[in-house]
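Researcher: We're reviewing a set of sequences before deciding which ones to prioritize for further study. For each one, I'd like a predicted 3D structure that I can look through quickly. This is DUF7931 domain-containing protein. If possible, include the structure in token form so it fits the rest of the review sheet.
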Amino acid sequence: MPESPQNDPQSHEEMIPYRLGESTELLVCQGVEEHRDIALRMMQQTEWQIDIFTRYFDPRIFGTEDFGEAIEQLALNNYRCRIRILLQEPKLTATRGHRVLEIGRRLSSYFQFRQTDEIHRKLPYAFLIADETAYMYQTHADALKSEVNFCDGARARQLTEQFETLWNAGESSPWLRVHVL
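Model: Here's the predicted structure for DUF7931 domain-containing protein, in token form for your review sheet.
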């Protein structure tokens, strides 16, 4: 028997308009374009905190001009914001260049970058948490399929706790340091 429409995850095409902290529907997104659109939509609505745990900070999703502008606006519009990015492969991200790394180096008061410790370097998943309310969770970081919710505080807090554990076990990386000349 099929699930009721209220319980079925919605596709990206049906995602109009989702609001951070208001829209409780569970979405499933697939592919680069859907991930890029959802990450941007969340980033544009974030008011004070963004946490990202990712293998290599996929530039197709997080390296766009629009995403860069949105994350920069978060930092410039809220002096108490917190932007934390935890990478499993910081060398790959840094050596190929990344818009958000450059913005983070310019606005270092708002951005924190770390790499995972050796124990957690091979974790298969990735996630983004916005304002401890919304999330995008990939079970397998290399497979572009994610569970997304713009208003699920319980799940977002659970992921935030997991992020805190990974963050506290993480370490600084020479690839992510701010370079002052």
